[in-house]
Specification:
This protein is an alpha/beta fold. The chain has 16 helices and 15 strands. It has 2 domains: about 170 residues, NAD(P)-binding Rossmann-like Domain (Rossmann fold); about 270 residues, Dihydrodipicolinate Reductase, domain 2 (2-Layer Sandwich), CATH 3.30.360. A hairpin with a 4-residue loop joins strand 14 and strand 15. It is globular. The structure holds nicotinamide-adenine-dinucleotide. The site of nicotinamide-adenine-dinucleotide has 28 residues, from helix 6.
Length: about 475
């Protein structure tokens, strides 16, 4: 897509015609390229590159491939097998061989013909890839949580704002009816004055990559429970078995990127990087961009946040293969005397989001919703339905529509930033072992230099966050 066509409202084809540059189209151009197969013509399509083909990248890309006015032309990954799968999928969809492959996202971002990118890489890479994209004037569909640290999130927000980019976050729950309806019930005051919010997230670890059984089978006498990986520490016999050379298809050095170099252990790389703080943030940060995002929507806190945060967690040894907190409970103080509890592994806090007010309550999760008056989900009484929240049919279509209209998406970058901050601050509070105070406007931790240091992380050379 020609960027100027969106800013001026004139498509490339009309521009060429208007300037007399339009030429007779040779007959060898396929009908699909001319938009005669029911798809938009190329000049009207948003040209997209995708970065990261692991668990989430293929799903996001599949949605893009189903959108008439988007065309995926480039894919980037550090794992040759994953990259090949991306090419096969994308070229298979368009029945051509046009998708270009990239190992270095910077080369892809430098392409002037790419309008937008979808980024689904592990958290250690979010900030570098997203800021590079924004600085190269790409619009961005980026995954949650916004980044691995609050400082990185601030850098992304700034790059997106400075470059006037459209941003959509992968917090797709906002595009689902029941989540919106639950937030609207709260925003229209049906539960009275909001006093308390509960955000229930998963606990422990989940072997998404299914790499644990193979490894556990090699450990003499070890239980076959994947949680055992949260007990295996350096220099133990099991650790020595777990460390292997990286496979030839993966550029592991680049995969570690700005994080600390660590020995390769398959069970903490693809998908399971979440369970080691070197790359990810455990269940808390994996899910905060979903259920806390929805909590904030109902609370009208998309650009606001907590002032006091106190977290307690149970951590494996800091150098274990999986070292992220298994069970955690965080209490947060919000404006207007609202308290929030974010918890994983506590039976009194249900998975999902629950808002409790002076006159009722509402609960929502994937595939479930409930309320003190369930009729609210059927119909909010017309006389009380003053706040109607942003409604979309498809999260990805909303991104593409906004790239064209230059209007904000349903989950812009500032929203993603604020949705993840309670998780980051909760983790920091757990790590320093005390309550911390947060200045929402200045975005600084007050009177606590040790906690303040954890707002950022050192970058491994040569990577630098601009
Ligand atoms: N919105 C959702 O529901 C949802 C669900 C799952 C994951 N996610 C998010 O998607 C992101 C990716 O998670 P995942 O589970 O797909 O991870 P994954 O490990 O399965 O896949 C990540 C892919 O990125 C590649 N990669 C890593 N660094 C790269 C770089 N610098 N350049 C190019 N490619 C690189 C890896 O080789 C891998 O193929 C995370 O932010 C995660 O939180 C979102």
């Amino acid at each position: 897509m020609n960027k100027s066509s969106f800013s001026s409202g004139i498509s490339r084809r009309r521009f060429l015609a208007a300037t007399g540059l339009a030429v007779t189209v040779p007959t060898i151009i396929p009908a699909s390229a001319l938009g005669q197969d029911g798809r938009k013509s190329p000049s009207e399509r948003v040209v997209v590159g995708v970065v990261g083909w692991g668990m989430q990248g293929p799903g996001n890309t599949n949605e893009l491939l189903g959108i008439n006015d988007a065309q995926v032309v480039a894919a980037c990954d550090l794992d040759k097998n994953h990259l090949q799968q991306a090419l096969d999928k994308i070229n298979g969809r368009y029945k051509n061989q046009d998708c270009k492959s990239y190992h270095d996202y910077r080369e892809m971002m430098a392409r002037k013909d790419i309008d937008a990118v979808m980024i689904a890489v592990p958290d250690n890479w979010h900030a570098l890839v997203a800021t590079e994209a924004a600085n190269n004037k790409k619009d961005i569909y980026g995954e949650k949580p916004l980044a691995r640290t609050i400082a990185e999130q601030q850098a992304i927000v700034k790059a997106v704002q400075d470059n006037k980019r459209i941003w959509q976050t992968g917090s797709w729950q906002r595009s689902q009816g029941p989540f919106r309806k639950a937030a609207e019930i709260v925003r229209n005051g049906l539960i009275g004055k909001l006093t308390r919010v509960e955000v229930g997230l998963p606990s422990n670890h989940h072997d998404f990559a299914k790499t644990a059984p193979e490894l556990l089978a090699k450990f003499p006498g070890a239980p076959r429970n994947p949680e055992y990986l949260a007990k295996v520490v350096p220099d133990s016999p099991d650790w020595k078995i777990a460390v292997t050379p990286p496979p030839p298809e993966l550029d592991y050095e680049r995969w570690i990127g700005p994080a600390r170099m660590e020995p390769y252990i398959k069970a903490r790389v693809h998908m399971n990087w979440r369970w080691n703080y070197n790359i990810g943030g455990g269940q808390l940060l994996d899910w905060i961009g979903h259920h806390c995002d929805i909590a904030h929507w109902g609370m009208d806190m998309d650009n606001n946040g907590p002032s006091e945060i106190e977290g307690k967690g149970e951590f494996p040894p800091a150098d274990a293969i999986w070292n992220t907190c298994g069970k955690y409970r965080i209490t947060l103080k919000y404006p207007e005397d609202i308290t929030m509890t974010i918890a994983g592994g506590y039976s009194d806090i249900q998975d999902g989001t629950k808002w409790i007010g002076t006159e009722g309550w509402v609960y929502v999760n994937r595939g479930k919703y409930d309320a003190s008056n369930i009729d609210w989900f059927v119909k909010i009484p017309e006389d009380r339905y003053k706040v109607k929240l942003y409604q979309t049919k498809s999260h990805m279509q909303n991104f593409i529509d906004c790239v064209k209209s230059r209007q904000p998406t349903i989950t812009p970058v500032e929203t993603a930033h604020h949705s993840a901050i309670p998780g980051h601050l909760g983790l920091i509070s757990m790590l320093v072992g005390r309550k911390i105070k947060w200045d929402v406007t200045k975005e600084v931790i007050l009177d606590d230099p040790e906690a303040t240091k954890l707002l950022t992380r050192p970058y491994r050379e040569p990577w630098k966050l601009a």
